[in-house]
Every structure is written in structure tokens, then in C-alpha cells.
Amino acid sequence: xxxxxxxxxxxxxxxxxxxxxxxxxxxxxxxxxxxxxxxxxxxxxxxxxxxxxxxxxxxxxxxxxxxxxxxxxxxxxxxxxxxxxxxxxxxxxxxxxxxxxxxxxxxxxxxxxxxxxxxxxxxxxxxxxxxxxxxxxxxxxxxxxxxxxxxxxxxxxxxxxxxxxxxxxxxxxxxxxxxxxxxxxxxxxxxxxxxxxxxxxxxxxxxxxxxxxxxxxxxxxxxxxxxxxxxxxxxxxxxxxxxxxxxxxxxxxxxxxxxx
Length: 260
Fold this sequence. Notes:
Low-confidence stretches: none
CATH superfamily: Metal-dependent hydrolases
CATH architecture: Alpha-Beta Barrel
CATH class: Alpha Beta
Helix content: 40-55%
């Protein structure tokens, strides 16, 4: 059974002391490949170092996270533009980008401009986009309306919307939902969404080191816990876990153009 972690931050300090061992544990659990979303300029070098050290296993992205859109957002966005212009072939996606109105609305107008620009680059460079949406679906839709004629594809990471909102997302392109440890939480609304959606719309992720699944909630997350997520999805879909693994892995391979 092969799994792909479509959203993990192996390059942050939480894994500084045991990264090779953590990746080995994940692979022993069947998680064979990892997509590394970007955050900002400060994380670019460690991200690319991990991708180089584990080439063919860890796949890098470039982008500007919405919570890092601050007073210097133009300089941050120019850095992403430079990376795409000079090294577009090195990346499997743009992101994570999107809108976050949960932490602060101070720079929400700037977030919208940054998100729109990264969507445009997604179409220009034929790269999928990893979308972060937190307390922001209406703002997300406002931005998507401005680029609705572009050929977009991607994933709404750590999906927190409804089935109806996902159906609306589908009007703008070929988008999946990222399902992680939250699906195992008691009374999680995500579980109801997964239950109703076809597996062709689903990819699995951890967002490690955050959002650990039950029974590890509150502890550092790792990719080795992904089988727990797959098992919960299989329970919700009333199908074998091997089917969940096969379909979600194929979805990730196609979206990110990963080697099978």
C-alpha cells in the first residue's frame, strides 16, 4: 500500500534533530513521497535543502503563505516570481497561498492581491496551486471570480468547507480537497464532507508537524500517522483502506505530476 503525503513541512525546526529517521518511519508505514509547500523567503533555503537531500522522495513548491502577507508582501511576492522565472521546473506546485481571515484581517486586501497573482502564475506555468482557506471562503470566491477564465487546478489544503462550497469551487477548475488528521477528530465536519464526496476528489495529507490525528492529537505530527487518516476515510467511505490508498495516491500523482 503506497501513500503520498501531499502537504508536510519536513524543513521546519520541529524535525531538525531526527529528519532522516522521521522520513524512514514514514516510508516504513507506506508513505513513499512527500509534497513540501512553501511559506515565505525565510523557509526557502531549508525547504530546498530537504528536497535536494531526499530527491525523488520530497518535492518542493514555491509560494507565499497568506499569514506571511505583511508590510513587505511585495518583496516576498517578487521572490516567488524570481523563483518561478528561473527555476519553474524544480517545483511541483505553487503555494501554499490563499486567504486567512482567522488570525488577522489587517492585510486581507494584500492577501487577495497575492492570492490572485499566484493563481495567475499557476496558469502561466501550468502548475497546480495549493490553497489555504481559513474563515475566508467568500473572499476566496471573490478572488477566483477575477480569474475564472484561467485553466486552474489544485487542492484546498486542510479542507474546512462544506460539500456545497466544494461544488462551488469546482466551477473554477479541477480542484481536490486535502484530508488530514482533522478527519479523525470527534464530531469533525470534515468527516461528513468526506462521506459525501467521491474519492476522486480527495488527497491525503498531514500538515505535519501540526494537526496530528487521534490518538496522537496534541503531539508532534509525522507522516507515519497517515495510515490512520486513510483508515478513517475508508471507514467513512465503507471501502477497503487499500482502495483509499490507491485512489488518493493516483490523484496526487496526476495533480503534481509525480513519478509513479
